[in-house]
Design goal:
Layout (H helix, E strand, L loop, with lengths): L3 E7 L21 H13 L5 E6 L3 H13 L4 E3 L17 H7 L19 H18 L4 E6 L1 H11 L18 E7 L2 E8 L30 E6 L10 E6 L7 E11 L1 H8 L5 H5 L12 E9 L11 E5 L10 E5 L4 E3 L6 H4 L4 H13 L6 E5 L4 H13 L2 E6 L4 H7 L3 E4 L12 E6 L6 H4 L3 E9 L8 H7 L7 E3 L8 H14 L6 E6 L3 H8 L7 E5 L2
Parallel strand pairs: 1-4, 2-3, 2-4, 14-15, 14-17, 15-16, 17-18, 18-19, 20-21
Antiparallel strand pairs: 1-5, 5-6, 7-8, 9-10, 9-12, 9-21, 10-11, 11-13
Helix pairs in contact: 1-2, 4-5, 9-10
Length: 549
C-alpha cells in the first residue's frame, strides 16, 4: 500500500501592528506578506496530488488554505480541532513577558511550565490534532492531505508523534510562519517526518508592506530594497559587539509611522539588553542570540511616511518618543505604532534636546505616580544625576514636593538647579542615616534596598526602585509588604494603557519649562561603541545623545 502523507501547515504572517497576542480572537487576517506566503505554499504543493485541504476555522488559517485548495480544484474543509490553543494572555498587546512582569497577581498562572498552566494542556492539543490526522488517514489512505493549523498545536503534535517530551520553551519550536511539517505513514506506523519552509522568501526583499516591522538583517541578495545605516548586533556581550552597518529600510504597516531619526540616546536599558545583564533580558530578547537587529529606545525625528489608518500624524511632523518593545532607534529609520509612546515635539526644542526626554522620564513619572506623591510631601531621590534621577527631581519639584537628592559634590549646583530643596553628598554622607523622615524614597540608580532605606520612611512611607533590586526582591516585596501595613515597597513597571497620553504630558512639561532633559555628551552614530563605553563607566550626568542625521 502506498504511503499516506499528512502535511501540517502553519498559517502565514498576520496583520498585527499592535503585536497583540491574538490567540483565538476573530478578525486577524493575513498581511500582504502572509498572502504572498500563501501563494508560495500553493506553488509548493502544485505537483503534489493533494486529496483534501482541512483548516482551522480562524481567518488566517482559512486564507492560507484557500490558494492550496484552489490549485487542486478543492473546497477548504473546516475542522474546529485544528484551532489555535487557548491562552489566558489572549488580547495582551506588545511584549507579553513585560506584561506578566508588570502584573504580579497573575504570576501564579505560570506555576507549571509542563502542562502548561497558562492555557490549554499540551496533552489536550495532542489529542485533538492526532484525532484529525487519524481521521484523514482513514479517509484518504495512500494519498496526500494538507492540514492548516497554528504553531503550538502543530509542534506538540509532532513531539508526540516522535515520542518526545511535550514540555518545551515556545522560543525553541521549529515551526515558523508558513512552514510545512510532513508526516509519512505506512498504515498506522509513522515512517518519516520532514520539515520545510517553502515560503520564507516572502519575508525578505521588497514584497508589499509588512506590518509590525522593525528592520530585518539585510540578506545578501536584497540589493533591490532601499537601505539605511544602523548600529547592528547579533550576539550578547561588551560594547564591541555593536557595529555600524546597513539594513533594509523598514516599511510602515497599518497604524504605523516611519520616522527618519535625527537623534537617539544610549542609556542603561540599551546597555543591559546588549550585555544580557540581568539574564532576565534574554527571556524577552532571545535566549541564545538576540532577536532584535538594532537597539535604541529613545528617538526624535521627522515622520517620513504613514501606514494605512493613521490619522494623528502626517509626513514632515517633528516627533519624539521611545520604542520599549521593538527598540530600533539606533538607525536612520524606524517604525513605531501611532498609538504608542510618540508625540509631536515641543516647538522650542531641537531633536538632540527632545530625544533624551522620553524613556528615563517615563520611568521617573511611573515611579512617582505609583507612590501617589502629593504636594508638600517629603521625597528623597537617590542618584539625582542620572537620566531617571534628574528627571525625577524636576517632576517632583513641579508637583510641589520637598525634594532631598543625593549626588557627588561636583554636581550639587546642577541638582539644586533642577529643583532639589536639599542636596546630600553621598561621597561624604551615608544618606540612609539621614535623620529626616520621608514619605517616599525613590532609588533612581537601584543601588540601595528597602532594608537599608526602611528607617528613612514615615510609618506609611513608600520605597520604589528603578530595578529589580538585590536577588530580584523588589517585585516580591511589593506583594508582601502591603500585607503587614506600614512601610511598603512599590514596584513601578510603567503601564502602557495610554502611552501616547504620557508623551503628550511630557511634551507639555517641556514646553512650559517645568522639565528639561539633562545632556552630558553627544556622539555621532559612527561613534556609538565609544558612547556605550562611556555610559558603562557609570559616570554620565543625565543623558548621552547620539546624532543620526
Amino acid at each position: 500500500m502506498p504511503e499516506t502523507v499528512v502535511h501540517l501547515v502553519r498559517h502565514g504572517q498576520v496583520e498585527n501592528p499592535r503585536r497583540v497576542l491574538y490567540g483565538r480572537l476573530p478578525g486577524y487576517h493575513l498581511s500582504h506578506r502572509g498572502q504572498a506566503q500563501a501563494t508560495l505554499l500553493a506553488g509548493h504543493f502544485a505537483n503534489t496530488p493533494v486529496a483534501a485541504v482541512v483548516a482551522s476555522p480562524l481567518e488566517r488559517a482559512q486564507q492560507t488554505a484557500t490558494p492550496i485548495a484552489a490549485a487542486h480544484g478543492l473546497e477548504v474543509r473546516t475542522d474546529l480541532r485544528l484551532i489555535e490553543t487557548s491562552n489566558v494572555f489572549e488580547g495582551v498587546a506588545g511584549n507579553v513577558a513585560w506584561y506578566i512582569l508588570r502584573h504580579p497577581r497573575i504570576w501564579w498562572k505560570l506555576r507549571d511550565l509542563r502542562t502548561p498552566s497558562w492555557g490549554e494542556r499540551n496533552v489536550d492539543m495532542v489529542e485533538r490534532v492526532h484525532a484529525v490526522v487519524d481521521a484523514v488517514r482513514a479517509e484518504f489512505q495512500g494519498r496526500h492531505v494538507v492540514l492548516v493549523s497554528h504553531q503550538a498545536p502543530i509542534w506538540v503534535a509532532r513531539l508526540a508523534f516522535e515520542r518526545r517530551r511535550l514540555t518545551h520553551l515556545p522560543g525553541r519550536r521549529r515551526c515558523t510562519l508558513a512552514s510545512v511539517t510532513t508526516l509519512a505513514f505506512d498504515g498506522d506506523t509513522l515512517t518519516g517526518v520532514n520539515y520545510a519552509e517553502p515560503a520564507a522568501s516572502a519575508l525578505l526583499g521588497p514584497v508589499p508592506p509588512m506590518s509590525g516591522g522593525g528592520p530585518s538583517r539585510r540578506p545578501p541578495d536584497a540589493g533591490r530594497s532601499p537601505s539605511m545605516k544602523a548600529a547592528v548586533w547579533d550576539r550578547y556581550g561588551p560594547p564591541e559587539v555593536v557595529r555600524v552597518g546597513e539594513l533594509d529600510k523598514p516599511v510602515p504597516g497599518d497604524g504605523e509611522l516611519l520616522v527618519k531619526v535625527h537623534a537617539t540616546t544610549v542609556n542603561r536599558t540599551d546597555c543591559g539588553v546588549r550585555a544580557a545583564k540581568p539574564f532576565l533580558y534574554r527571556l524577552f530578547v532571545g535566549l541564545r542570540r538576540p532577536r532584535l537587529a538594532v537597539l535604541g529606545n529613545e528617538f526624535a525625528g521627522e515622520v517620513e511616511a504613514v501606514g494605512g489608518g493613521v490619522s494623528s500624524f502626517r509626513p514632515a511632523d517633528r516627533v519624539f518618543g521611545f520604542s520599549p518593545n521593538r527598540f530600533g532607534a539606533h538607525a536612520e529609520y524606524l517604525t513605531v505604532p501611532e498609538r504608542g509612546p510618540v508625540a509631536t515635539m515641543p516647538a522650542s526644542l531641537s531633536f538632540e534636546e527632545a530625544a533624551p526626554g522620553t524613556e528615563g522620564t517615563h520611568y521617573a513619572l511611573s515611579m512617582i505616580r505609583s507612590a501617589g506623591v502629593q504636594p508638600g510631601q517629603d521625597v528623597l531621590v537617590n542618584g539625582a544625576t542620572g537620566a531617571i534621577g534628574s528627571a525625577a527631581v524636576q517632576l517632583l519639584a513641579h508637583l510641589g514636593a520637598r525634594v532631598t537628592a543625593t549626588c557627588a559634590a561636583a554636581h550639587k549646583d546642577l541638582v539644586a538647579g533642577l529643583g532639589a530643596n536639599r542636596v546630600v553628598d553621598y561621597t561624604v554622607e551615608d544618606f540612609t542615616r539621614d535623620p529626616q523622615a520621608y514619605d517616599l524614597v525613590l532609588d533612581a540608580v537601584a543601588k540601595s534596598s528597602f532594608a537599608r532605606c526602611r528607617r528613612l520612611l514615615r510609618p506609611h512611607g513608600i520605597y520604589v526602585s528603578s530595578d529589580l533590586g538585590p536577588l530580584s526582591q523588589n517585585p516580591v516585596m511589593a506583594l508582601v509588604t502591603p500585607l503587614f501595613g506600614g512601610r511598603r515597597v512599590r514596584f513601578a513597571i510603567p503601564a502602557q494603557r495610554d502611552p501616547a497620553a504620557v508623551m503628550r504630558y511630557l511634551k507639555d512639561l517641556m514646553e512650559s519649562g517645568a522639565f528639561k532633559p539633562v545632556i552630558d555628551r553627544r556622539y555621532s552614530l559612527d561613534q556609538i561603541v565609544e558612547a556605550y563605553r562611556y555610559v558603562e563607566t557609570g559616570q554620565k550626568i543625565g543623558n548621552v545623545v547620539i546624532t543620526v542625521g
